[in-house]
Amino acid sequence: MKSALISEDKRAIELCIDITGDTSIQKAVEQLEQRLHGNDLNCLINNVGMTTELRFSNIYEKDMMETYRQNVIGP
Questions:
Q1: Same domain, residue pair 34 and 56
Q2: Distance, CA of 47 to CA of 17 (rounded, Å)
Q3: CA 33 and chain centroid, separation
Q4: For the chain, which has fewer Cβ within 10 Å, the N-terminal or C-terminal residue?
C-alpha cells in the first residue's frame, strides 16, 4: 500500500529495503539513481525498525544490541 505522501506528490520515492542485506541496499541505491535521473536527493526519510518475538525474560544482550544496531546505527 502506498503512503499518502507518495499518492499526493509524484516526486516522492518509496523504497523498501532489508538493511541487514548488502544486496538489498545496493539494489535500492540503483533504483534510487534510476528514479532521480541525475538529480540530487533533497530529503531522506529513514523509517527503519526491527523487533523481536522473544519475551523480555528470554532476551539476551546480543539480541538487544542487534535490535539497537539495526534501529539506531543502521548498516
A1: no
A2: 10
A3: 16
A4: N
